[in-house]
Specification:
The protein has 520 residues and is mostly beta strands. 1% of the residues lie in helices and 46% in strands.
Length: 520
């Protein structure tokens, strides 16, 4: 296992807990720092799309290659040459290959144009005008028909990328029993996932279409390996999410969710919901065959029991009002799953944020509860993912906009800054919103700490009451009463603490009061 990251316009391979090696890109390939990289893992390779100018693969040693070499641009020329033993009428096609040191095929281009037809008798079949590849390929592969045939079979291979002519007189009977496999150059993919031994992705231009590779050949993308998603042309965004589960591939627009099932080339699409979609591919996390993702109205899961909104209820307003988050920025949200604490962690832009991700919330998979809203003060988060250390232990990691990677620690600090604790309670009215009350001594319950205090600010009066005199609560006490709050129809508390390394574990509170009558 290895960890691959993008930093600005470079790809880097994690070389240890505190360093990363910059990788060399293939000639002519660039990385856009303005586009998010999207990754898949297949055949022990990392596949990178969207931010590179061409889809790439990266191996564990950090060698970067194009996913598919460009196909030959011009046809080869064939003719007979004295000295061979082949007789018949033939045509030839040509591809480029990239192989590793052991001779394994890592990539093969699509076929170049078909050659002219040549009829020979007891001769070599000679190839000239072999075009050289602009990519760093390791060989050229030639395919030909049997005499007067229409099917192309593997013929022979020429190592290197310098030879412009070659000849061979292999008989028809000695050709492979199997025809050439379907090939094709990978499109300019904006998204990519692995499902059932194939890569699936969305073309940057054909945004309503799902393209897929041949089974087991992640570099082979025939043009007819395409599936038109539902409601093509219905918006400017096209397909916004691909979600691979064990038995189905989720395919989503921003306002639609469906699934693709089947195997081989026999696939069928089923529309699941015409109102739920995926706002951001980076919000998608699949854990134990259940997918989590952000839609326009909240966070959903997709599993064996179908679609379910897990944010309805107490945190519904987070996603369905403009109070907490900038909903127009849902398309740049991102998430990861903390496999240590079993939490789905979602990063969002706050209401009024200048387009930056500056808040995050958590969904606890064990208790099925939401926690937040949190702010990381030490840096602006820019990505979230899991990496492996030297012992292949998975570590939840957050990337920052200033180029660093961060991970959790036991000490409650953001780097050297305190992690601010702030809780604002609801406004209590004692089930009588019009009645005047005297709010007496509030009771605070907590886990006792070794030292420290926290501030308790009362808000007593009408709903627009201003903050009262700040009271101090002793963190070393498990339970305590504070001084009287005052008189008013409503009362609430804001509890804060902001000391480096100091923990707070609040268990609950009580706001006792005495009714003093209702004014008519």
């Amino acid at each position: 296992m290895f960890t691959l990251i993008q930093v600005a316009d470079e790809l880097k391979l994690m070389a240890g807990p505190t360093s990363a090696a910059t990788l060399t890109l293939p000639t002519g390939v660039t990385i856009s720092k303005f586009l998010k990289p999207r990754f898949a893992v297949a055949n022990q390779l990392a596949v990178v799309t969207n931010s590179p100018s061409r889809p790439l693969t990266v191996d564990a040693s950090g060698v970067v290659r194009v996913l598919s070499p460009f196909a030959p641009a011009t046809p080869v020329t064939i003719a007979g040459a004295a000295g061979g033993t082949l007789t018949g009428t033939y045509r030839v096609k040509h591809t480029y290959r990239i192989k590793d040191a052991a001779g394994n095929i890592l990539a093969e281009s699509g076929f170049g144009p078909v050659s002219n037809t040549a009829s020979i008798s007891n001769q070599w079949l000679r190839i000239t005008n072999i075009p050289l590849s602009p990519d760093a390929v390791t060989s050229s592969m030639f395919y030909r028909t049997t005499s007067n045939g229409s099917v192309f079979f593997p013929w022979f291979e020429v190592d290197g990328n310098t030879q412009t002519s070659a000849q061979n007189d292999l008989s028809d009977a000695a050709l492979s029993l199997f025809a050439a496999v379907s090939l094709g150059t990978a499109p300019d993919l904006t998204n990519v996932v692995e499902y059932q031994g194939r890569l699936w992705g969305v073309d940057r231009v054909a945004i309503d279409e799902v393209r897929y590779s041949e089974a087991g050949l992640i570099y082979a993308w025939p043009l007819d390996n395409a599936f038109l998603g539902p409601r093509p042309g219905s918006d400017l965004y096209g397909l916004t999410g691909l979600v691979p589960r064990q038995e189905a591939l989720g395919i989503a627009r921003q306002n639609m969710f469906g699934q693709l099932t089947g195997s081989g080339s026999d696939f069928a699409f089923l529309l699941i919901d015409e109102n739920v979609g995926i706002m951001s591919q980076e919000s998608v996390v699949v854990w134990r065959d259940t997918a989590f993702f952000l839609s326009h109205d909240g966070v959903y899961t997709w599993g064996s029991n179908g679609l379910k909104c897990i944010s309805d209820g107490k945190v519904r307003a987070w996603f369905q009002t403009n109070t907490y988050f900038d909903r127009s920025k849902f398309n740049i949200a991102f998430a990861h799953l903390d496999n240590v604490r079993l939490k789905y962690r979602l990063f969002l832009a706050s209401a009024g944020s200048p387009g930056l991700i500056d808040r995050w919330v958590e969904y606890d998979l064990k208790t099925e509860t939401w926690w937040g809203i949190h702010q990381t003060e030490a840096f602006p988060p820019s990505s979230a993912f899991s990496r492996t250390d030297s012992s292949n232990v998975i570590i939840p990691t957050i990337g920052s906009g200033n180029g660093y990677l961060w991970q959790e620690q036991d000490l409650r600090t953001d780097n050297t800054s305190a992690v601010s604790f702030r809780v604002t309670t609801k406004r209590h009215n004692g089930d009588n919103p019009r009645g005047e009350k005297v709010w007496t001594r509030p009771f605070i319950s907590q886990v006792a700490q070794s030292a420290g205090t926290m501030s308790v600010t009362p808000l007593v009066g009408e709903l627009n009451a201003t903050a009262g005199v700040v009271k101090s609560a002793d963190l070393t006490k498990a339970a305590q009463k504070l001084s009287h709050l005052g008189r008013g129809k409503h009362a609430g508390l804001t509890i804060t603490q902001n000391v480096v390394g100091q923990n707070v574990q609040l268990l609950g509170y009580e706001l006792p009061f005495v009714e003093i009558g209702e004014r008519l």
